[in-house]
Write a structure and sequence with these properties.
two-stranded antiparallel ribbon; 287 residues; mainly alpha; globular; 2 strands
Length: 287
């Protein structure tokens, strides 16, 4: 039963990793942009949520009403103002610019909030649990996993069933032809980044409720997000959820064997899958 519990807890943890990874998967699928600052943007979302809950006295989940649009706006301005200028055949400029952005965000958070760990107070939600067949499931991890499924389902619907999604796919497939058909690629890319950072805001809030955070943890969240994206398959949103679950289960099983092996087990699983299936477990869906 203990091993079953480890697998279940790992699956629920995978929901959080999928939220970390969904924005990465979206912007890579649309722009082929690897965003080194993604982890720090998750932490920025957590700090914005902390500020909103402190100033307005809102529950952290209600803070999403403010933080999600704010992060979406930041994403649009960031893409139109800076990142669009770096996109091209050479992948180095966006890597360098987003690395610099990561350093700026991290230091700005350090100056504003200090290096002390912070945590959002969600009250009884943090410790509430339900019993299911001998297992004790935390309400917060279950809620996080459910939110991850809903978010990815909505992104999948937007990407494949709406005019905006068709614009995303057309611009991703051939930017020049999309421009000739009347699509403004800079605007489309701005909307894609806005959508990605809206999801990042959700990830930041759930991270801030689940555990303590400080300005330096962005790199670790970025690694978890990258591993989930690559395990599932670049550009495949449901694959991203599967990748998050695989990574979470590997970590909890590793921790079950030896507490020091938690992160190592996840990284080793990632390397094994990458060696066997370099393109990830699931191919990109074309509909």
């Amino acid at each position: 039963m203990e091993w079953v519990n480890a697998i279940v807890q790992g699956t629920l943890l995978g929901g959080l990793y999928a939220l970390f990874a969904a924005g990465l998967s979206l912007i890579f699928g649309v722009m082929r942009l690897v965003n080194i600052a993604h982890g720090d943007l998750i932490v920025l979302g957590a700090y914005l949520g902390l500020s909103v809950t402190t100033i307005l006295g809102l529950h952290p989940l209600l803070a999403l009403i403010v933080v999600v649009p704010a992060m979406a706006g930041i994403g649009y301005v960031l893409q139109r103002g800076i990142l669009n200028q770096t996109l091209g055949k050479d992948i180095l400029p966006p890597l360098l610019v987003t690395f610099g952005l990561s350093v700026i965000i991290q230091n700005a958070l350090l100056e504003t909030y200090s290096a002390d760990p912070q945590k959002m107070n969600a009250g009884a939600l943090e410790t509430a649990s339900v019993s299911l067949g001998g297992l004790s499931l935390g309400v917060l991890p279950v809620m996080t996993f459910a939110i991850a499924v809903v978010v990815i389902a909505l992104l999948q619907w937007v990407f494949y069933r709406t005019a905006l999604g068709r614009a995303f796919r057309a611009t991703s497939d051939n930017q020049e032809i999309a421009q000739l058909m009347g699509l403004n690629r800079r605007h489309i890319f701005g909307l894609a980044m806005a959508l990605a950072l809206a999801v990042t805001a959700i990830a930041g809030i759930m991270l801030g409720i689940r555990t303590s955070f400080d300005p330096s943890i962005g790199g670790g969240r970025l690694i978890f997000g990258f591993e989930a994206v690559i395990i599932g398959g670049l550009g495949n949103l449901w694959g991203t959820l599967a990748g998050g679950v695989i990574l979470g289960v590997a970590q909890t099983i590793g921790a079950k064997i030896d507490p020091g092996w938690q992160l190592l087990a996840g990284h080793l699983t990632f390397l094994v899958i990458l060696a066997i299936k370099p393109n990830g477990l699931f191919p990109r869906i074309n509909e």
